[in-house]
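OP here, attaching both records as promised.
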Amino acid sequence: MHVDTIRWEGDLDGAVRLIDQTLLPDDLVYLDIETVEVLRDAILRLAVRGAPAIGVAAAFGVVLGARTAVDGGPAAVLAAARTAADRLASARPTAVNLAWGVRRMVARAERDVSASRTGKALAESLLAEARSIWTEDRAVCDKLGEVGLALLRDGATVLTHCNAGALATAGRGTALAPIYLAVEQGMKVSVIADETRPLLQGGRLTAWELAQAGIDVTLITDNMAASVFSRRKVDLVLVGADRIARNGDVANKIGTYGVAILAKEHQVPFYVVAPISTFDPDTPDGASIPIEERASEEVTRASSGRAPIPDVRVYNPAFDVTPARLVTGIVTEVGLIERPDRAKVEDALRRAGRI
């Protein structure tokens, strides 16, 4: 069983319930969020993170904003939805699911505003749309697991980076979904989880999540990966993505590019597992993907009881870009894109109705 990361609790006057991932693995705490600003803060401080999960969160966030204007009628609800969408979309620039989620919600509001007799009716329509996004994400996770299962064999060892499991989605995850499914079907699969500095998502989240599910997981620091590859202990790499460009370049958590280079050097297949919603047809290549830079304190703050690093200049990009030439394949809900390039990505986008 995987953890339940995010959902909407109650009716229109309910709340967004999500795990505060900043407290893991020490404490499993659920937050009940009722306002746009509190949800935006949760996204900013990574209480909720992972491209699909923040797409779902943002969709729910539009509902939180829209419902504040129900007494003003449908036009007021539409305006409030747009304001909430703009506010949420500005929280994090790299993960495209965030912008995708709010665009879909605003499109629903614009489509339904003239047919809605009251503001409440339009807000309830938006809640139905957000719940559909949540349900669809769970179904997509299952499909990613089914497509990716073909990449695994009994006894396989998988290396992963950052967290692309249930904590990053509304369902069983992206890169971890094939692993969950394989284990459910009786296969033996072991996972090597990169620690993923500076915020340790691999250690705090992936290792914790897999251990909770009873899956064999070994934690390593990021600078141990080369040694692990050299000892031939890795059968394949599975990672998630925060944005995939039209040519197949992949933005994912910082350090992914280095793992891809190591996999290429050691002839280990490197697969990205991501929903079609993570593809951005408006971004031609990796060089065009905006890379979020985060606070220096994430690198310099005290840890393990040691004194903080003294005042020093810090470069802290949250993501890097892996060129398509290093990607063996991209697992999507519409199938596997082998050796991705622009033509193959566009074919998948057409089949999914994205272009």
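Record two, same layout:
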Amino acid sequence: MATTTNYGWTTPDDTALVKDGAAAIRTLGSSVDTTTKNLNPETTLGDLAYRSSTANVKTRLGLGTAGQILAVNSGANAPEWVTPASGGMTLISTTTLTGATTTVGSIPGTYNSLFGLVYGVTNATANGYMKMQANAADNATSTATEGTVVGGDATRVFLNPNTTLLRTDANNVFSFTIDNYASATNYKSVYWTGVFVNSSSVNAAVVGGGGFRTNTAITSLVFNNSQGNLSTGTVLLYGVK
């Protein structure tokens, strides 16, 4: 019996008898059916088909989940759905500033750096300096000289080192970045900016840099004001990949 070029389907020879026509058609139909199924293994909406290791046979790849992308597997021999690595910023926590100290704790060590936004800051007692402490509370009174000269010491930085905040004005806002925060062997660089109303009721801006001289991973941040309890304010802390 003759066969087709591409898939090897059996067909009648030119000299085959007419009485064999029904059997020949049935054989050819079965071959077409088998080949078609091998080339179309999809069973569900969204399925994809790709060539398997067997010639003329495809393999079904089921639809992935929302947000996944198509990639090549580790063996570089088949496609697969994968969840892309996350990027950008992820909100870790939202914390209200209140009392003598406010702690933002349980900071995971799974990001490259931290970004924070501190806004709406007011103080219940007197105009003062806003401080950020790594891993522990520090209630020592800061001074303009200290803040200006060092911008931060072993484990704290002053977000407004040059002039005190007007304690009753909720327009006070700061942002900060802490790099290498999860390292247990290196110091951590800290950068911050702020726009606030100072003790003379004048709008002021600050851009600063310093560092936390600690070889311990930062797992919490403590905020407080040098001149008394915090009344209002919010800390948004983000992890950055």
